[in-house]
Amino acid sequence: MTPTGLSTGVSTTAKRTVLVSGASIAGPALAYWLHRSGCAVTVVEKAGALRDGGYPIDVRGTAVEVVRRMGILPQLQDAHIDSRRCTFLDPDGSEVASLSPRAVAGGVEGQDLEVRRGDLAAILYALVRDDVEFLFGDSIDTLDQSGQGVDVTFHSGQQRTFDLVVGADGMHSRTRETLFGPEEQFHRYLGYCFAIFTMPNSFGLSHEVMVWNTPGKAAALYAVGDSDELHAFLTFHQPQPPFDALRDPDAQRDLVASVFAGAGWEVPAMVNTMRDADDLFFDTAGQIRMPHWSSGRVALVGDAAYAPSFLTGQGSSLALVGAYMLANGIATNRDHSSAFAAYERDTREFVAMNQALVDNGAATLFPTTARALEQRNTMLRDLVTLPSATARPAHSALRLPEFAPLR
Ligand SMILES: Cc1cc2nc3c(=O)[nH]c(=O)nc-3n(C[C@H](O)[C@H](O)[C@H](O)COP(=O)(O)OP(=O)(O)OC[C@H]3O[C@@H](n4cnc5c(N)ncnc54)[C@H](O)[C@@H]3O)c2cc1C
């Protein structure tokens, strides 16, 4: 399917076969571009179906150009959430500042997009599902590169050989672990944990985000449109990652409840809802930083290779841009080593600039001391009176090459 009406660029030589692990954002986006370049693509996803849910995500700068070239910009514009207000609150719930979400996040009105994560995943999946093989409810058990390709044994027991394999399996990538070893070596912990879940919109919130802070703690309620459901978000500073809690949902609930005990505003109601939430998602805020994104015939893309953390708001944009750049590397190089080298060479600086957003400002949304919180509040009050924000340079720092597969 080529919605922009361009040639698929299908090669006259035998089709290269590529297995992609993970069907969220990076996986289906990569599958689209690889299919466009004439590869036969299989996507394997551990979950039994496409995964819905998650906080709204942003598509900004260079990533907007990627989705335009994919022909899905109009659909994403229709799905655009259009949050109108972001209100910051004191510990007692009184208002500190109320401003445009774009002023806070550095997005550009009329260009950048904010969509439900599930909507973006569904639009990408719909774009490729007729052209790409999807294996839901399965995963890669072993990878063996000793032969001419990559011999893959799936969890289901199926065995197949592919020319290339790509891990698009997220921050805690199994593909990365198989290839490069434990996550700890590549994980840069940013000092925060967070819990996300949904709760009833009994507050009458509409098209807006409310953010409550005390030093080291924040609670947010996110109303997407006029939905009767809110996205609730609790985040807190924790100097060391709570490794035990990461594997134990009950310990996660206990940890969050103890951290937020005695907090003001609507936090007690949020904590109560979290106790029984069946969609609780708990994790640490962290980045993945790797010296190389490939080994032999296997490469990584998106969060698996360079998760930037929610503090940057750039996870999905990096996944979309990374998918385009990796596919372009494969499409323009017959040899996989050259393909992966080109992908790294042309994408790494963009990734680094976006990951660096946590070092120069993004984390100040959640200050850990009273003094830093007061400084942040002053900055927010100043933002209210400033003209609307301009884009952060990192969002648009990469000029996409033309997608020109070899013939
Ligand atoms: C359900 C869900 C909710 C999310 N909610 C938020 C949110 O609220 N805020 C936020 O900033 N980011 C969220 N994210 C992460 C966000 O989507 C990514 O940061 C970003 O879009 C980059 O996407 P990605 O495709 O690289 O990785 P991800 O979106 O993490 O996708 C990885 C995919 O790989 C699959 N997978 C994992 N392991 C295996 C395996 N062994 N074999 C096969 N498949 C595997 C996962 O099920 C998932 O579909 C969420 C992701 C998911 C899957």
TrEMBL record:
<dbReference type="InterPro" id="IPR036188">
    <property type="entry name" value="FAD/NAD-bd_sf"/>
</dbReference>
<feature type="domain" description="FAD-binding">
    <location>
        <begin position="17"/>
        <end position="351"/>
    </location>
</feature>
<protein>
    <submittedName>
        <fullName>2-polyprenyl-6-methoxyphenol hydroxylase-like FAD-dependent oxidoreductase</fullName>
    </submittedName>
</protein>
<dbReference type="InterPro" id="IPR051704">
    <property type="entry name" value="FAD_aromatic-hydroxylase"/>
</dbReference>
<dbReference type="Pfam" id="PF01494">
    <property type="entry name" value="FAD_binding_3"/>
</dbReference>
<dbReference type="InterPro" id="IPR002938">
    <property type="entry name" value="FAD-bd"/>
</dbReference>
